[in-house]
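Sequence in, structure out.
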Amino acid sequence: MFAAPGRRILCVVAILCGATAVLSIFWHYFVVIATGFLALLIFFAWFFRDPERKIGEGIVSPADGVVTDAGEREGCQFISIFMNLHDVHVNRAPEEGKILSVKHFPGKHRVAFGNRVNENEHALIEMETGHGRLRVIQIAGIFARRISTYVKPGDRVKKGDRIGIIFLGSRVCLYLPAGAMLRVKKGAKVRAGETTIGVWKNAVDKKNLGS
């Protein structure tokens, strides 16, 4: 399965690859061009891959990658995930809820793990969940020049639903309400929709009372 924004690109490159392959029968120089399009097709197929995931328990990761920061910030539980080129770049909802707002902010394209990453182009998705409001921030990096968000205000999403994609290496930040308890630390490898990155304190308390 491939991410929605990549399907048209894959189709166009596949057509160009096929056309130049046919033309190479009549003019051998087209073999080089066809080979180039084939390499490009393989790259895009790898980059836009969007595998199905078994959705994890608790609060799940919104992105594939490595946790670069985790802790408290601005009165919220905060986690930052850096996505390498080889990671799946589709982002997923960390919890079930309603989309309150989706805002896009133009900006620079610095390295996504730098100290001034807040100045980069980014998209802010705010959600209302049964445990409070959370924010998912998609941040473009030095190579990422496009952020595609699938959701809009008023949409209801389930935990693990696809909410967007960032093109070519980037960063995703998540701000959770104070009632969240993080379960991952800096350096942890996570997978979108699958890895449990936190739990809700009230859910843990109810479980302890029940036991």
